[in-house]
Amino acid sequence: MIRAVLVDDEQLGRNRLRRLLKEHPDVEIVAEAADGVAARAAVLQSRPDLLFLDVQMPVEDGPTALRKLRAAVPEAQLPFVVFTTAHAQHALDAFELEAIDYLLKPVERDGLARALKRVRRQVWQRSAPPAAPPEMAPAPPSEPA
Fold it and tell me: How many CA atoms lie within 13 A of 116 on its CB side?
């Protein structure tokens, strides 16, 4: 199960995303927030795998909230991030912050499915046991001197 937090200052945006996520039974919404400060608190409390994070919000915007989370939480415990916004010009910032994806609002079914495919791959890689080192061929017997 992928545990997700939805962050958007607009209730309609959270409602739409929640409705679209119902089509993905492996995603559980564990918290919602309307600004970056509340988002950070929700992440620290619920420790989700995934954070849907709006870019422009009052109080604290999404990129600022993510930078503060990165300073407070070890990298291996950070949720994967999918930024959501109505403004395409923020895409570069999102990828500089290592977002998994960037969805333009209103979030569309196909875009969400693509983002979740990427998230699933990353969640699986994070939870998979480390690969064993490749076996080395035995050294040839040494010749007597």
Answer: 21
